[in-house]
Design a protein that fits this description.
The chain is about 50% helix and about 0% strand. It is built from three helices and no strands.
Length: about 70
């Protein structure tokens, strides 16, 4: 298993915290797809998402949060 360091995530995402958030969001997105029960997964979805981000195969964009006016 490949170890992904926070420095690798920071290179792709700007900082390590944003990298973890992007990878977690992607893993949740992939988890929503139906899976074939005959296929065994050797990696967890979160690990796969972190690897995709570290390798530069995962792109994202930040969306500004809207504020509700009272």
């Amino acid at each position: 298993m490949r170890i992904i360091t926070p420095i690798e995530l920071a290179k792709r995402a700007g900082n390590k915290y944003l990298g973890v958030l992007v990878a977690a969001k992607f893993a949740r997105f992939v988890n929503e797809f139906p899976r074939d029960p005959s296929v065994e997964f050797e990696k967890k979805l979160t690990t796969s998402a972190l690897e995709e981000l570290a390798l530069g195969r995962l792109t994202y964009r930040l969306v500004r949060r809207r504020r509700h006016e009272a």
